[in-house]
Amino acid sequence: MEIGTKRMLGEILLERGVVNRAQLRLGLVHHHEARIPLGRALIREQVCTESELLEALSTQLGIDAVDLDRERLDRSLARLIPSRIARQYRVVPLRLEQKDREILHVALPAPASIEALDAVRATSGKPRVEPHLASDPSLSRALNELYGIREPIEKFSTPHLSESAPEEAPLLLYGWPPVTVVLLSRILSRHGFTARVATPLEVLHTSASDVVLAPMQAMEGLLMGEVRIAGALIVHGASEDEGFERAHKLGAKGFLVNPLDEEFLLRAIRRLRPSASRRMGVPRGISDEEHEGTQQ
Fold it and tell me: How many angstroms separate the Cα of 71 from the Cα of each of 49, 59, 94, 95?
């Protein structure tokens, strides 16, 4: 059970101007794919700092935040919280306060569980335990200092394809039904290309040498009109002015009415990877001027 979950974290960060909607969308995609808290996802995406996140969490949960790196830790207080409890709940004793009854102040990560406070209360014997939120890195350092608990250092990385050897990078298929994926892969394989299904996070982190092939609706759902990807985008949509306009808003470099039309599909790819035309067996008699069905 968690204490004081009220407003949405993303809403608070938007209101504070810490992130914009495009950055929040990126964090949400990372959050769902990696199955980590939204705040941690935003940190990984480098759109939010630890202190900005901590302030927002403090507002969301109604619990004061503390900068553990500026706190003077009292080693004598470590005896009040056994190492196993400190490790399990990542809780650090801060100070004892004497009022009408003793209050043990502790630092712990968001969202601050009642189970953690109950465990501290039971093992410390203190009638009242007051929680304070602290950042994950500062908690790791404090746990090491007080208890010798060494936690593994998280390697922050975001998936992307290497920019080296761009011709060898597989084409990324996103948002297609399984049958269409198979058909597209077969067409591309016949002409020397490899293709693979990409996750939303991989699409958002493409490099300039990547090519993404996706239905219009799938990309609109992912980008929501506010994000641009570094990779070249080819979209499939209806052949009407509105379709071309929607593709333009997505920053698409190619537009296909029928993605399984082999000639137009290969032409769109050749225009984005000119050096590949020699090895991909582009059908002869098709010039760049004949671009019905594609749009750069």
Answer: 19, 21, 8, 10
> What does the pLDDT look like over 214-228, one tens digit per residue?
999 999 888 876 678
Distances, alpha carbon 2 to alpha carbons 103, 112, 164, in Å? 21, 6, 46
Q: Residue 137: which domain range?
A: 68-147
Report DSSP state, residue 35.
T
pLDDT tens, position by position, 234-273: 999 887 767 888 888 888 888 888 999 888 898 888 888 7
Q: Say if 52 falls within a structural domain.
A: yes
HSE-up (13 A, CA, CB side) for residue 89 = 26
Contact between 45 and 37 (Cβ < 8 Å): no
- The label of the residue with tokens 């995609």 reads 29
Span between the terminal Cα atoms of the chain, in Å: 53
Number of domains in the chain: 3
Say if residues 134 and 53 touch (Cβ distance below 8 Å).
Answer: no
Interatomic CA distance for residues 216 and 248, integer angstroms: 11
- Take residue 222 and report the two structure tokens written for it: 């992912």
pLDDT band at 15 (very low <50, low <70, confident <90, very high): very high
Are 142 and 94 found together in one domain?
Answer: yes
The first and second tokens of residue 260, run together, are 């399984």
In 3D space, the residue among 195, 242, 234, 206 whose CA is nearest the CA of residue 218 turns out to be: 234
Distance CA 157, CA 231 (A): 18
Q: What is the CATH number of the domain that holds 239?
A: 3.40.50.2300
